[in-house]
Give the backbone structure.
Amino acid sequence: MNGANGAEPALHPEIEPIAFLLGTWRGEGKGEYPTIEAFAYGEEIRFRHVGKPFLTYTQRTWAADDGRPLHAETGYLRPKPEGRIEIVLAHATGVTEIQEGAVAGQTVEVASTNIGLASSAKEVTLLERTFRVEGDLLTYELRMAAVGVPLTHHISAELRRVE
Amino acid sequence: MNGANGAEPALHPEIEPIAFLLGTWRGEGKGEYPTIEAFAYGEEIRFRHVGKPFLTYTQRTWAADDGRPLHAETGYLRPKPEGRIEIVLAHATGVTEIQEGAVAGQTVEVASTNIGLASSAKEVTLLERTFRVEGDLLTYELRMAAVGVPLTHHISAELRRVE
């Protein structure tokens, strides 16, 4: 999408270090946390570009058992000089994240520098994310400190590029 | 979109107070701020639901003169009891917002309670937003305190529901 019309824009050169993420990815993940029961989910992630120096990110998950929608989050990836990256996200659960970190090869590793919480959101204090791409396989994991629990593995998933 | 398949889910009852926002809206806006030149833009906003107690929000603007993409932001609206609402947003410019406020009739009025800034983002300290719908007309305005300027009118737009 490019302004008023729908023409496909050229990739912005600053996006090249994370162009390996572009596409639509689908797969399965597993979650666990000391305060909840372990769970399995299906997931779709879309990374898109619009010709500007950021990628758009939309993600949604659904329960592996009955397909009911679970989590959703959305935001932007902003590559910076010297392999740095900023990621800004909003979660449907009432949480926002500022993430900063590095891109090395086809791995993105970030940690939160700011977490915003709406009044009714659960208390999340720190999030660390790792994304890796090998060919058409995207894996990620997320570590979380929340509701009094120190930084702990929370979810991981494997997704395949479907377009 | 609903889990693994694409079937249209039923509207979650908690969404009813803001169901008047649902749809795709297109129109024009004008921006001004003491630190920049006034500008005109085209805009598209989409409010969608997935059967859960939130709306998804995606927005993008383009320059009125040549159609080049300008701003983009995305997030979720979470209606709460007694006419309250929470809005969580991420901007492509490296900013996140937690917004809280009220829904009265077809007007949503919110102010930021948390703003997150990535290292390379401009300093934004307060954002106030008003959305109003009358029939197929959506108008909004945004007031902003940023880069040392106190809370000041920044942008307003009028959009028509196109689907």
Observations:
- Chain B has no helices and ten strands.
- Chain B touches chain A through 47 residues (CB under 8 Å).
- Chain B has a mean pLDDT of 95.
- The radius of gyration of chain B is 16 Å.
